[in-house]
Amino acid sequence: MTCLEAQSNIMAFVDKKLDDDKISDFVRHMKHCPNCSEELEIYYTLIVGMKQLDNNEELSHDFKKDLDDELTKLDNRVKNAKRFKLSTFSVVFIAAIIGFFFFYSSTLNKVYNIEQNMIREAQGEYYFYNHLSKYIEICHDDVIVEAKERKKPIEKTFYQKVHSYNITHPVWTEIEY
Ligand SMILES: [Zn+2]
Question: Which of 75, 90, 169, 171 could bond to 27 as cystine, CB 3.0-4.6 Å?
Fold first, then answer.
């Protein structure tokens, strides 16, 4: 902050209307620049003193001390607000990181479980076929045999054979009276 900027903010400071984002620079300048701080002190004494007289208040005994207190108080308020913002931001940021970490690890766990299940299933199928295929084949053969049996013509009795032969080969004999 230049001397010109600092001095143009003196009235706003005295009226307690200085913007928060200018306070730190203003206070730092006033603590290190003798010219500006002298000017500030003159204005502060003049205006605050007049206000005190107007309001029938007791006139301050040490305007310089009042001014220093006021500057320090304002500066601390702004610094605390900044610190609070920063800490709020850190808390949110850390929470976001932790949240992301939990999400990431739970996703990893899910992927791991899916993979493990796939491996287990593959092993299960392998185990199943490796150890039970004999029985499966037996069952399979049984089914085939059964199906063949079903297709086989049913054995006819001797009488049935004669009967069907007679139907297909009718023998007509003429009987003479
Ligand atoms: Zn200055």
Answer: 75
CA atoms of 79 and 24, how far apart (whole Å): 8
Q: Using alpha carbons, select from 43, 46, 17 the residue that is nearest to residue 30.
A: 43
Whole-number Å distance, alpha carbon 19 to ligand 1 midpoint, is 18
Write out pLDDT tens, residues 133-161.
666 666 667 777 777 777 776 777 888 88
Question: Ligand 1 centroid to 32 CA: how many Å?
Answer: 8
**Rg, C-alpha atoms of the chain:** 53
Handedness of CA 124, 126, 129, 132 (dihedral sign): negative
18 three-state secondary structure:
coil
Per DSSP, the three-state class of 136 is helix
Query: Whose CA is closest to 62, among 76, 34, 77, 41?
Result: 41
Q: Is the pLDDT of residue 177 over 60?
A: no
